[in-house]
């Protein structure tokens, strides 16, 4: 295995990872209409009634809001002409675009007094024709099925599964703010309103051409308490947690996070299949590992070495095979069920005591130990051990390459040196 973190992992050899694909126009290959064929008068009047109700709501919010955030919905199976929703001169801004099945949804900020812009477009649709003789603004108006005041969900642009079901659960949110006419003014007003409802805010921000991104800690319920706050937001996502957050915690707090994870984790019984790690050993009494293996699951190719991990690599690999990305497991609040257990064979000693021994023979011995100890178990082997060079590119020597079906690997095949 590589010892120097600055060697850029030369044992990871990536080839053939890209494929050239020719461009295909979204409009090619079919004659499907872009918008439905609707009764002009019925559809236009229905939209005007919707905007009339929106105007009433805007008047009610006049004292507490500088505008409305609206959600435009397309007809099922048809695209929304979202490009025509943004009106820069009037300050009307397209905030985000989402897809729910065959329905397109666009979230749009409309400043106070600017709803008339859309009402005028509908009046022109009802009363005027384009040069081709079609109703004016038909591509836009016919693509709109419904318009309504946006809720929190209209600003949510992340995976729906990442949105906590509990509206009062405090988490870190990633908030994307529009720039509008003054980036700093929008950011400062958002901070003022957010602090007013009890949010904790990050000091640093990321600035893009049309967005300012920062993180806030609080609940979904806090967002919905302030219309002014939501009207200053373009998109909301769940903040991406990194391992650095957990690594930097004091040991006492790390213990509490691990304890919380264990309380909602169900471990497999002793009859479950094993992942057998051929590595530097595993420190099986680690709190996050001790429920998935016992002392009898530990083996070594040389009894003088013992079975414990003096290097750390094998224990870390065990954690990955048991929990996957531990960051995701720790930050989740959902129950976790683990359907497998662990085994370990120590094949490497941290002081290179086995240097010079043929690796094929060591591997054969490593596979034999757990198979002899518990031949009835179902197991797969994980050997995260590499050479110091990439001559064989991770393959068997020429003439000995073979494809191994690991889950159904037989005893005879398992004995073959790799």
Short description:
With 418 residues, the protein is of the alpha/beta class.
Descriptive report:
With 418 residues, the protein is of the alpha/beta class. It has 3 domains: 40-150, no CATH class; 160-240, Peptidase S8 propeptide/proteinase inhibitor I9 (Alpha-Beta Plaits, 2-Layer Sandwich), CATH 3.30.70.80; 251-414, no CATH class. The protein is 28% helix and 19% strand. The chain has 13 helices and 15 strands. It has helices at residues 40-60, 115-127, 138-141, 152-155, 183-196, 220-224, 227-230, 243-247, 251-263, 313-323, 326-331, 359-373, 411-414, and strands at residues 67-74, 93-100, 103-111, 144-149, 171-178, 200-201, 206-207, 211-218, 235-238, 265-266, 274-279, 298-300, 336-337, 341-346, 379-382. The strands form 4 sheets. Strands 5, 6, 7, 8 and 9 form a 5-stranded antiparallel β-sheet that branches. The protein has a 4-stranded antiparallel β-sheet with strand order 2-3-1-4, covered by helices on one side. A hairpin with a 2-residue loop joins β2 (93-100) and β3 (103-111). The longest helix has 21 residues, at 40-60. The protein is elongated and about 90 Å long. Residues 398-418 have low confidence and may be disordered.
């Amino acid at each position: 295995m590589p010892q120097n973190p600055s060697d850029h992992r030369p044992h990871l050899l990536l080839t053939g990872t890209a494929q050239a694909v020719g461009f295909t126009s979204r409009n090619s290959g079919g004659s499907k209409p872009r918008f439905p064929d609707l009764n002009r008068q019925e559809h236009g009047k229905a939209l005007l009634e919707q905007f009339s109700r929106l105007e009433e709501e805007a008047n009610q919010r006049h004292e507490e809001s500088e505008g409305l955030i609206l959600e435009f919905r397309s007809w099922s199976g048809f695209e929304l002409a979202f490009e025509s929703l943004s009106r820069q001169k009037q300050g009307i801004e397209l905030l985000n675009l989402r897809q729910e099945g065959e329905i397109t949804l666009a979230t749009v900020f409309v400043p106070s007094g600017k709803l008339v812009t859309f009402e005028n477009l509908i009046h022109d649709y009802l009363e005027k024709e384009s040069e081709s003789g079609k109703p004016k603004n038909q591509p836009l108006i016919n693509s709109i099925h419904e318009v309504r005041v946006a809720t929190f969900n209209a600003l949510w642009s992340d995976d729906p599964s990442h949105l906590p079901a509990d509206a009062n659960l405090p988490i870190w949110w990633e908030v994307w703010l529009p720039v509008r006419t003054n980036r700093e003014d929008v950011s400062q007003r958002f901070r003022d309103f957010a602090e007013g409802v009890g949010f904790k805010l990050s000091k640093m921000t990321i600035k893009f051409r049309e967005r300012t991104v920062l993180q806030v800690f609080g609940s979904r319920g806090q967002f919905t308490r302030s219309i002014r706050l939501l009207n200053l937001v373009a998109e909301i996502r769940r903040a991406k947690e990194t391992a650095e957050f957990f690594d930097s915690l004091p040991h006492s707090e790390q213990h509490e996070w691990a304890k919380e994870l264990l309380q909602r984790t169900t471990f497999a019984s002793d009859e479950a299949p094993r992942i057998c790690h051929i590595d530097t050993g595993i420190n099986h009494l680690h709190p996050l590992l001790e429920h998935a293996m016992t002392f009898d699951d530990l083996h070594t190719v040389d009894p003088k070495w013992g079975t414990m991990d003096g290097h750390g690599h094998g224990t870390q690999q065990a954690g990955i095979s048991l929990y996957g990305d531990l960051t995701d497991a720790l930050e989740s609040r959902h129950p976790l069920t683990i359907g497998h257990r662990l085994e370990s064979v120590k094949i490497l000693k941290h002081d290179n005591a086995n240097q010079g021994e043929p690796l094929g023979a060591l591997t054969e011995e490593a596979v034999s130990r757990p198979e002899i100890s518990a031949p009835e178990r179902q197991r797969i082997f994980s050997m995260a051990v590499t050479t110091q060079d990439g001559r064989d590119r991770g393959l068997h020597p020429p003439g000995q390459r073979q494809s191994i079906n690991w889950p159904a690997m037989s005893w005879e095949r398992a004995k073959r040196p790799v």
